[in-house]
Amino acid sequence: MNCQFSTIMGVYEENIVPIKLSRLAEYMAQKKRLSLDEALLCIYSNPMYKELYDEGAKWWYMSTADLYEEFELASERASQEVSSEAFEFLVYTLEKYALSKGISGLEALSLLKRYDADLFLLNNYDLLHTQGTGYVMDEIDCYINRRRKR
Q1: Residues 15 and 58 both lie in one domain
Q2: Taking the model in full, what pTM does it have?
Q3: Across the chain, what does the average pLDDT equal?
């Protein structure tokens, strides 16, 4: 019976989180005067997004306004942790990666975020920013390929 309950909760989460995201995007768009697409991009790029499906945390029980505040706090914490030099390196690398793959900056950002390669770049900034662009591009490709195989 316990297994059945956790399975039901998993299905419930999978169904309620998209509804919460929709409401959060609408709320965020109104509060920040963004388009719905821009609000969704803010949500998907926020570190808090990954936690929404954590059954133990039950973030989906929160009101839309409270969830928005949690997203804002997570965004503030994340932006405070990155130095301007590391952020500049990330943007530079992102643009170079996009050009090397023939994709847009937005597509490159989406790809890097999907595999946490953006965090890889920021966490290894001290080493990577001293390397050549070709080396860093190869490291991104290797990192993404390793993550894809998981």
Answers
A1: yes
A2: 0.53
A3: 86
